[in-house]
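In the previous chapter we treated chains in isolation. Here, by contrast, the input contains six separate entities that must be folded as one system, with a combined length of 784 residues.
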Amino acid sequence: MRARKQGEPTAIERARRAQIVRAAIDTIAESGYTRASFSAIATAAGLSSTGLISYHFATKQNLMAEVLATILADFTEFVTARATQGTPATRLAAFLAANCDFIASHRNHLIAMLDLQHAASESQARQADSDRAKLTELLADGQRRGEFRPFTPDLMAGFILSLRNGVIRRAATDPEFDLAACTAELLTTVRLATTA
Amino acid sequence: MRARKQGEPTAIERARRAQIVRAAIDTIAESGYTRASFSAIATAAGLSSTGLISYHFATKQNLMAEVLATILADFTEFVTARATQGTPATRLAAFLAANCDFIASHRNHLIAMLDLQHAASESQARQADSDRAKLTELLADGQRRGEFRPFTPDLMAGFILSLRNGVIRRAATDPEFDLAACTAELLTTVRLATTA
Amino acid sequence: MRARKQGEPTAIERARRAQIVRAAIDTIAESGYTRASFSAIATAAGLSSTGLISYHFATKQNLMAEVLATILADFTEFVTARATQGTPATRLAAFLAANCDFIASHRNHLIAMLDLQHAASESQARQADSDRAKLTELLADGQRRGEFRPFTPDLMAGFILSLRNGVIRRAATDPEFDLAACTAELLTTVRLATTA
Amino acid sequence: MRARKQGEPTAIERARRAQIVRAAIDTIAESGYTRASFSAIATAAGLSSTGLISYHFATKQNLMAEVLATILADFTEFVTARATQGTPATRLAAFLAANCDFIASHRNHLIAMLDLQHAASESQARQADSDRAKLTELLADGQRRGEFRPFTPDLMAGFILSLRNGVIRRAATDPEFDLAACTAELLTTVRLATTA
DNA sequence: GATGAATGAGGTTTCATTCAT
DNA sequence: CATGAATGAAACCTCATTCAT
């Protein structure tokens, strides 16, 4: 019923939805998207039945969309707060550092994010494109100021995000991975790849 | 029965397994891992029963392991044939170029590969590690010769493979993506990131 | 709570129950009994929760019983007001004409009625029997006066009601059905079948 | 799998499908369409799981379509074998008598048929129309020969089928109903309503 | 009185797997 | 070797009903 209603959600409802989304993120991160059934999520959330999930989310796709949106929102909030000042080169470095810090503190979020991307819907793909577009903008700006060498900004943005994704996956997979060392190397590598 | 038998597989058996694996790759690439049911794979393979798949593969995990192994084998064969000659820097460039060429000619293989990585088992993770190890070796070799700057070879290998994966995903997702242009930029970028 | 209470219902309560019953009739008529869930009925009634329906009706069966009772009451009121004067033959004709008029003006009531009959409970079957009994009485009366030929009144009553039900279903199903023409033919047919 | 295959069904398959259809008819007749779940049907058929039903019928709608088709086929076979000879009036009487006999011997078929009609699909509605069309044809033929009075054949066909349906429902509902007596009265009634 | 939240049973359907033939 | 049939677990989802507020 609720899942089909319109209007403002109440505080209780928002709390439950957030709880379910959190449980979904953890379940996906730990067991993979394929095994993240309503049943598994309900258990992780301490709910007594999968019915409650359906009560709050009209469809599983729907839930997953909110999961991804939440992850991206948390991520964006964290990263943009730290990559807003200075020249493009500085901001790029700050962006990457922020990414790596986020990985350390929100491991599950990012593992889940990677697992969700290939199950992503149309609108989510557009969201990913828009993320890349912002980075593209930053790079183009740096080129205009002469900080960056002449590359195709859109492609380089893709490269940088790919590197970030690789770090996420490695951090997720390998428990002995040294994230701090990797961050330093990543910054150097990207600097060399981009500076004029 | 066969799936539990020991001893040498017959020629017919190997042919059937290859046929099923091929169909699985195509199905995963086109519909995603989630929708790659035995039923879908059997249809794609022109088989009249899913029973035959179970007959040849003890378990679905088992089949997927062979799918991934096959993809990696095809990939390795293709790439190593083109990255064996010259200095490490030359071979690295050839490796990347070969990768991009492989994307163009084996799109389905690579899309399936990405889709399988997070359903990957322990042993498959080890296989991925060994792939990275080979690249690590190449990079270390280049450093010893003074071609490459001093970076942590293992991390740089991870970066390079991440870049490759990103190109795969983008090529798979975006139909208007210009793979040739991307290849050129990728080579430049990696050269700048690695050379002394 | 209320649904289990005893004693006189308040005016508000009666209004709410009527509102719910009306919404149920419309929903059944438009979507069929199978799809007439509490949720659908609540939406049709403009209620914000299915809980309110359960509050006023102890059980779904209970609600459906009241729905059927309401329909039959409305129907009886409409028809008996027009079939009370004259000889049995005249009243029979008036009864049929009234039925057909009722179809035109209360389409939803009658469609719902037909849809409810096979979900009908014991007591509802008895109600239908009593309706037929009244018609039986009328027919027997006409026989005593010599207006009608000698048939088994109870069976003939069943026939007449069957004809009426058929007209309802046809009117409900076929949008091009000419109800007025059908009414005329029906009157003739019944007259020929009954008159001495 | 099988439910989606093409080509000729095997003997075993036809037998299983028939068994399931028979169980569905009995379940609908005894408990009503609403309560005729796959689970109930599987139990009635002595199957070990509902999965087998889905294996043979792609969809519940699909199964119900076959149920209705089977009923109509059995019915048509029974009735047309007995209503083919003589003048239209004779055949009409034979048709009605055959209907009543069928009711006695195939009670469940007919109860289920009535319960399915309002859940009927487009194509099933067309089938019902075509049944009425055949009767319409018979009536028009009788009019041309002068056996029947001038009525609208299509409407009269609807009336006759409505009478038949009423008898079915009454026979289904009332265990003490005297079908033989009803048949006699029905024949007389229809004769009076139709003859010139 | 009314509402939103919660519950748990049960709905249809898909799936990997087994087995007789 | 291969097939069709069968199985039962588990998937997502809907529903009537209960209850605290």
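Chain D touches chain B through two residues (CB under 8 Å). Chain D has two domains: 1-58, 65-196. Compare these points with the single-chain example from earlier in the chapter.
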